[in-house]
Write a structure and sequence with these properties.
It is built from 13 helices and five strands. The protein is mainly α. It binds adenosine-5'-triphosphate and magnesium ion. The site of adenosine-5'-triphosphate (ATP) has 17 residues, from helix 1. It is found in: Cytoplasm.
């Protein structure tokens, strides 16, 4: 079975619909076809300013949501990044193989540092892609299912793997970028030209999985659309309506063309009202399942302890091989 690895940051209390439809839904399916590793990258979450009082709770919440959405610790390895110290250790070695200019060309750093203000951007944010390379290479992953926004980081990962292998001997599997086609990319409800994002969207722009139905219904009602009346999929001219149709279609497994036919002659208000119900039908039972996991932190901790043990077996073997090739004196 090919091995895949992917993660979701604990940068908010709740996942949003984009996280589910664009990522976690595929992760659930891949448990049956792949040797799947999923993790909560808390080391990455502190590359931007964060609140230490909420990070642990958000990390547990992320795990509760992943389980409630269908990850099964019997069929995948689920862990928290900081529980596996090999990530930070390999990051150091890879950082010593990364050119300063090479790292400076990463567009996510440029974007996120601009958003923070250039003087407040940290060295951690700068080396974020190197840590991401370590995440992937530690597990010898064959594929990394990520969104289009992560393509450049994956290229860096491949370059670093090839560079290490060429200079010190073959240790790393060179991973293939695996950007699934036909996967929904969900846009911000208030700014349908930008992606829905945990940390960058305004509250009105995000549909949070853990919000109450009436809160999400209100956000959907207020979603930015155009001044026409026709319900038609056209992401260029009608980004807002197209985004609503994408969400509707992804949650009901109905074709966009069917929805267009159904809503011929109806108004935007009808579409929004029905979509709010579709969303509630998905989120209500989910909220209940998440609550069950949240109410049992001891069980979550057990799941994570098992996940970390399994992850460390593989990560530890890779790191030992790396240290050997680099020429470090082995501890006795
Ligand atoms: P942040 O704003 O903190 O970066 P995020 O919403 O971008 O948060 P991540 O934790 O960075 O979420 O990404 C988790 C996964 O969700 C990734 O695989 C990413 O490609 C996917 N993803 C994030 N936003 C969307 C979106 N709007 N549509 C589809 N997939 C998305
Ligand atoms: Mg992101």
């Amino acid at each position: 079975r090919p091995r895949v690895l992917s993660g979701i940051q604990p940068t908010a209390d709740s996942f949003h619909l984009g996280n589910y439809l664009g990522a976690v839904r595929q992760w659930v399916a891949m448990q049956d076809t792949h040797d799947a590793f999923y993790f909560v990258p808390d080391l990455h979450a502190i590359t931007v300013e964060h609140d230490p009082r909420t990070l642990a709770a958000r990390t547990r919440n992320a795990v509760a949501q992943l389980l409630a959405l269908g990850l099964d610790p019997q069929r995948c390895t689920l862990f928290v990044q900081s529980h596996v110290p090999e990530h930070a250790q390999l990051e150091w070695v890879l950082g010593c193989l990364t050119g300063f200019g090479e790292a400076s060309r990463m567009t996510q750093f440029k974007d996120k540092s601009l958003r923070q203000g250039a003087d407040r951007a940290t060295v951690g944010l700068f080396t974020y892609p190197v840590l991401q390379a370590a995440d992937i290479l530690l597990y010898q992953a064959d594929g990394v299912p990520v969104g289009e926004d992560q393509r450049q980081h994956l290229e860096l990962t491949r370059d670093l793997a090839q560079r290490f292998n060429a200079r010190f001997g073959a240790v790393f599997t060179v991973p293939e970028p695996f950007i699934p086609t036909g996967i929904a990319k969900i846009q911000d409800l208030q700014d349908p030209t930008a992606k829905m994002s945990k940390s960058a969207s305004s509250p009105g722009g995000i549909i949070e999985l853990l919000d109450e139905p009436r809160v999400n219904a209100k956000k959907i009602r207020s979603a930015v659309t155009d001044t026409e009346r026709e319900i038609r999929y056209d992401p260029e001219a009608k980004a807002g309506i197209s985004n609503l149709l994408t969400i509707y279609s992804a949650l009901t497994d109905r074709k966009v063309s069917e929805l267009e036919a159904d809503y011929a002659g109806k108004g935007y208000g009808d579409l929004k009202k029905d979509l709010a119900e579709v969303v509630a039908t998905f989120t209500e039972p989910l909220r209940e399942r998440v609550r069950v996991y949240q109410d049992d932190p001891a069980e979550l901790d057990r799941v994570l302890a098992r996940g970390a043990t399994r992850a460390r077996e593989i990560a530890g073997a890779t790191l030992t091989a790396v240290h050997e090739r680099i020429g470090f004196l082995p501890p006795k």
